[in-house]
Amino acid sequence: MTELSIVPAGAGAGKTHHIQETLTQWVRDGKVRPEKILAVTFTEAAAGELRQRIRGALIADSNLAAALAVERAYVSTIHGLGRRLLIEHAFASGSSPQQRLIAEDEQDLLIRRSIEENPGLSELTRNLAALGYQGSFSSDETAEDSFRKRLLGVIALLRTLGPRGSDPAMADFVEASIRAGYGAPIGKSDTLAAGLKKAVDALLTAFPRSIADEAGSAAAKTAFRENFRALKQAQQLLAANGKDWRLWQRLRDLRLSKRGSPTPDGYDDLAAAVMLAADSLVSHPGPLEDAVSHARALVEGAQSAMTDYETRKRELGVIDFSDMVTNAARILEEEPAVLGAIMDEVDCVIVDEFQDTNPIQFTFLWALARRAKRALIVGDTKQAIMGFQGADPRLTVALTQQFETSPLDRNWRSDPRIMDFVNALGPCLFGEDYTALAAQNAAGHDTALEVIELANKRGARSGGKPQHFIADRLLSLLTDDQVTIVDRHSKALRDLEPRDVAILCPTHNHCASYAAALRALGLPVRVAEGGWWQSKIVQAACFALRFAVDPADNHAAICTATLGPGATPLTDALGALARKGRIDTPELAALQGLWPDSLATPVDRLVHQVIQVVGLRDWCDRLDDPAQMRADLLRFEAEAAAFMEAHRDMREASGFYGQSANVFLGWLENKVGLKGEDLRPNPAGAEADGIEIVTWYASKGREWPVVVVCGLDHKLDPRAGTFSTKFPGFDDLDHVIEEATLAYAPDFAAPEATARFLHELYPESEETARRLLYVALTRARDRLIIEWPQDDDKVEPPLPITARRLLNDVCGIKLQGNQITVGSANFPSRMTICDKEIPASFDTEGRVCLASCNREPRFAIEKPAVGSLVLVVSPSQAVATARPLPRQIETRAIAAGVRLTGSDLAQATDKGTAVHEALRILLCRPDLRGRVSQHCRVSDAEVELLAQQAQALRQTLAKLGYTRLHIEQPIELELADGGRQSIIVDLIAEGTDGFMIVDHKSGLVADHAARFESYWPQLAAYIDAVEFKAGKAVRSAAVFWTETGELTLAQVLCGTIERSNPTTPDWGMR
């Protein structure tokens, strides 16, 4: 190697432009022939852009021959380069040049198959509970799923090490790391177990029954009850020589006497003896041996599954993406002649995003770069955040420390005021390794920095949430005509649009919560979210396809009829099936017409026919978010085509035989179970048509005019139960992978034991947090908005690793007035200090209608002529009525009031919903009272008060002559324009000569008559609907105030209000 240039390139530094200029200059100087360029990027888009830029620069130089020669250059992704080398040198390496590349989903299916059919792993999965694996009720994940996920992670990590990952010594390295981290165990397992058994027996002999009944508080009763249960379990377990370290940990924290809840004489001493014996868990030899056994089983099981997977690939004649790099690196290492031949064909080697290489990728690229005549390596270790994908920035750091670097020092992305702020933070986060970037753009005309300071902690159970305040601020920005930006392409001023804004969050769960808040305000959103398989249109297509190939499938028939475009009521469908043995709908009749030829029709064509005859494409336009529905349906068609194109051997190797529709649906359901496969496609394509919400990780390499950085309080602490790669040193980069080892940080039952391992991982986790923060703060072009959370109030180590702590403790950032202070530098900014209550913008409906919400879909739709429209509103929004207000209104107390205080019910609407649902259950099914607390998220005491209210309401109505109650009665009305409107009345009480309408209202009330009058248009609307549908008069109307337990009622004037059109309620005419 005669010339090596290592170029650290900060965010927005123009690294692609630098690569283009360097290559073009080399070509001009005759140092490099265009066809002998070898350039590697990490995406196909980046490779195409680089090739186009080089070609454009050469054309600008009037060097057309060189521009044409660029087409023959090696400009591709690292995987594309590896495959090209494998094909060109197949015979030298002894491999076939015709090996087929399998997709990632095919790879995952094959690996899963290898795991499931591996005898050693099957034995291991028989007792997963003993290894700490548990199912999840929230995600339906089983213990087997959890174990498989962990094993797949180990396989992925081992494969980043190439052949080194298959070394049997890896399990020994893992064991050594665990024993070194745990330290010398204290005592012998049998002795320690006997000591605990003796202490437990003594306590249970003295107190054979729980002392919970003698406790003075509910908390004490619960604690003593759980303690007693744990003691009994331990007694049985220890008597059988069993072990459960989680149970030992529970015995370390038994409740003793406290003020207000004293224990019987002698209890505390015996309980303290149990806790003392259980404290030996911290250095107990048992958990150590179990952790070693578990870790070895994972590594050896992963290696066994990898061996089986490699065998399956060889038998099928296929390779995967990892093979492209691993096999190419092996050829370069084992065949010097091949490496020499490649270098003879290359004048220079260019590598972009070098910091994102994993160990085997580093080995492969470094083998080429170190032998090239010229090499240009571009990257930025400050943006090395892809460790979760196996990338190891330590390798790039070692490279920059061993060779001179030429960092870029200009920024072409951000407003100078944003760049000045980032440059002030840089040295605090990265020390001397940080290179300040000089902004090249002119300062904008509007605010560049903005801070939204939250009043509540993210976990607060009442008041506004962070996402509410961010959504409220963005609503203000997007509806304020004075907020403009400079268009990136036209360079002209234009209004800020939703697609110009991005919200960056630390996790996908955060993304979902912010998306929900934005949608609640009517703002258009684009977020990578799951749920494609459960999408209404996809499920309808699946059931229709099942019925098309098997008209005797009654379940498919019911689901197609009720869930599809026809929307047949379920009771009608079931009734028809019971009476006639079939359901007669146009959709099912059309599908039945496909049945004779369905078995002989290719699945992709059959799917197209099913969609066509059922009218699913047209149905998309009648569903919520038509563009998203069409995108979901298009993906379903694409999956059918992919199924047909998948190699038969690959399908069969994954356990799917044949090409029938049912096999396709099974294959598809299995596929969407893989990580990342259930994401819904973006209907706008590559360009978002709404506010884009992405994770900090996914924002890398992107930029937006306005960026909101959220979740600075999210913990980025190291996690137990993780494997990591270790290198003894980086002096010999040529052979660094050959010395790689593996380490493991177990998740012990005793937190002190786990902490010993996490302490070693803490520095690396903090470094990753610094890089993530840098990436997030450098995505904004014109305006950077920082969501500033409350302090976590932690003072005792280990302190949590959060971006806020880094900014506060490491960078010394302070918010003062309308400026941000970093050290001695001040940065003007717009400051918003939030209230604790939810913003007022969330109090009303129909809040905003932006042009981007109403964009036409990108396909032709024939729209029928629209006649005059009648605006229909719900009764709850009615503001006037022709029905006169009753003359006499009285209020009577019938029960104690109840005001919900549960922390899970932050918003008034949540509380109102909980009250209505609780009263519905307690009035309809008082026998289900025991389930109300959990279902409605209210306390037992509140359930008791609500039950009293329900009973009092029933008795009061009975005394008034209304003995039959219709709870939450739905009423459907036909409108004059042919449409339908559905309403639900909280309570209709029926007597012998008429009805009484009762509406439940939560919230405090001062003047009952005035409040009743304000609700009268709503009550009148209910009266009109009930009288019209039931044909019987409504005699009374009432409001039940749940917070006071009072009932305000009035006699309705006799006679219904005549209307010119009885099918249109008078509240609907606005």
Q: What percent strand? A: 5-15%
Helix content: 40-55%
**Which quaternary structure do these chains form?**
single chain
Output the strand order for the largest sheet: 14-15-13-16-19-10-23
Shape: globular
N-C termini distance: 81 Å
Residue ranges: pLDDT <50 for 5 or more in a row?
Answer: 845-869, 1056-1070
Radius of gyration over C-alpha positions, nearest whole angstrom = 34 Å
The tally of helices reads 37
- What's the β-strand tally? 29
Largest sheet: 7 strands, parallel
Look at the helices and sheets and give the structural class.
Answer: alpha/beta
Arithmetic mean of pLDDT:
86
List keywords for this structure.
1070 residues; 29 strands; seven-stranded parallel beta sheet; 45% helix; 14% strand; alpha/beta; six-stranded mixed beta sheet
Give structural notes.
The protein is α/β, with parallel strands linked by helices and 1070 residues long. Helices cover 45% and strands 14% of the residues. The chain contains 37 helices and 29 strands. Helix 37 links the parallel strand 27 (995-1001) and strand 28. Helix 6 crosses helix 14, helix 15 (321-334) packs across helix 17 (359-369) and helix 34 packs across helix 36 (940-959). Mean pLDDT is 86; it is low at 845-869 and 1056-1070.
